[in-house]
Design a protein that fits this description.
The protein has 262 residues and is of the alpha+beta class. 24% of the residues lie in helices and 47% in strands.
């Protein structure tokens, strides 16, 4: 009799918890993706004035993760502005509770694309994104909620740069761009391991490996900048009216470094 009494007592809470988990899973798998697929483009257009499209949204409730696929954002004239094949984020729920921080097991971005254009008058195609809507001022004592990301990656990225402010327009493509960061954190005195590589269509590539800390902002490691044309560097770094000369040749840099900002 005692066993039956105990079973009858735990049966009701068991079914309640089980029912809540089923509802949570159903909402995550079937309802939330449809809502996000509809609402995210609306929010992007409202905030940026640019049309957006999402091909697919997937939410996995156990463990909690989100995937956005086939995202495209247009320029005001309908040309491609930004896009990516897949954005994936996985929340570490129990680690978040344990560490009293927002913990992500993985954040990845595959094949992102960004188009940056500088017009003849010196303005950029993204300047309107920084207009209006001043943020509420926060006190100096306010601190952001800590964030930890075990694995952060960007793979096969592509950046297209077009500068029409020169007598002869400059066009450069940076592809592929690959970034891998392990143990990224906003906690003070914690370091993350970072690796970055990219290649320029005009020739040359950059390899960077090291560590980085957010509080205080510091980094050390090794950087290699190989066979990048000086003409390209000047065109990307300096305004057109600041180049009364032509500089030919290549830049090669291979060195260890240590830097900090306090």
């Amino acid at each position: 009799m005692e066993i039956r009494h105990i079973v009858s007592k735990i049966k009701k809470p068991f079914f309640i918890v089980g029912g809540l988990l089923v509802i949570y899973a159903m909402v995550g798998v079937f309802i939330l993706p449809a809502v996000l697929k509809s609402k995210i483009p609306e929010i992007i257009q409202k905030e940026t004035g640019r049309k957006a499209l999402i091909s697919n949204v997937q939410v996995q409730p156990f463990p909690l993760s989100l995937s956005l696929r086939g995202v495209e954002i247009e320029e005001h004239n309908g040309q491609p502005f930004a896009a990516f094949d897949d954005f994936y984020i996985k929340l570490g729920f129990f680690q978040s509770i344990k560490q009293l921080a927002l913990v992500f097991d993985e954040v990845s971005l595959k094949k992102p694309f960004v188009h940056i254009a500088k017009q003849k008058n010196g303005t950029f195609n993204f300047q309107d994104l920084f207009k209006a809507k001043a943020d509420d001022k926060k006190g100096e004592d306010d601190q952001a909620f800590p964030v930890n990301i075990a694995k952060l990656s960007l793979s096969e990225g592509k950046l297209v740069w077009k500068d029409a402010s020169f007598p002869k327009p400059v066009i450069e493509e940076i592809h592929p761009i690959n970034i891998d960061i392990e143990n990224f954190t906003t906690h003070a005195d914690k370091q993350a391991r970072l690796g970055l590589s990219l290649a320029l269509k005009s020739g040359g590539h950059l390899d960077w490996k090291g560590t980085v800390s957010m509080k205080p902002l510091s980094s050390e490691g090794h950087i290699k900048f190989d066979k990048v044309t000086l003409e390209t560097i000047l065109a990307l770094a300096l305004p057109a009216d600041a180049m009364p000369f032509n500089l030919k040749g290549y830049e090669i840099l291979d060195a260890d470094y240590k830097a900090s900002y306090t």
